[in-house]
Specification:
By secondary structure, the protein is α/β, with parallel strands linked by helices. The chain is built from 9 helices and 8 strands.
Length: about 260
Amino acid sequence: MIIAGRTQLLDSASYPDAVRRLTALGYDGIEVGIYDRTFTPREAFFRDDFPEMILRAFEENNVAAWSVGAHMDYTQDTEHFEAVEKAISVAKKISTKIVIISGPFKNAEEPFEKQWQRQIEALKRLSCRAEREGICLAVEYEPGFVIDNHELLLRAFSEVGSSSLRVNADIGHFFLLEKDPIGTIETLKDLIVHAHIENMKTGVHNHLVPYEGDMDLRVYFRKLREIGFDGIASFDAYQYDYEAVSEKSVRYFKNLLKEIEKDA
């Protein structure tokens, strides 16, 4: 498993500087966000010179692997849809096969099936683009979203019918939303291509550093190893100074992986 840092959480830095600072903190991989902390698309990501610039930064900093993060509601805002669609093309240019997406929040004032169909239609359009570019769309579900559990996720995958659809396993979201989060990892094992890692308190959607919270991360990491996942796992934490907590958090994650490997 490759522990990755997120450029989104160093959004005051240029992309090359964010890569340099994240690798200096011990991250071996990078999730390149198309946005800043407020999920507003960053103009720099979409410039023609971006692929060459970011690939040079990866090479200079010996980055092992990278993905593109494009979490936003692409179902109602044309500009957001176009940003996610363009991110698929940028992902191909920077030689990654993974674009992480999510979806919209549920609207209590609108029939659920109407929201569902809007997301399915948008996913179909994005999937067509992803198939042409050879990109996996790693879909993540969250509390309060139209898709907020693995059963709805699999229903969406079935209705869209695209080979491009895969899963971003946010283990904290599994912890909050699933009766059997470890069983969910097993159920989705053939679809998981990316992960988000953090800790959380029971019943509270708040991304915490790994050494706080109620999750037994050893169990989650062991299960991910058991299903053969050895890809990118990005540390997902918004409430902190990301750099201030990263070094200790990365060390915690890597030590946990070493212990699990030793026990295997």
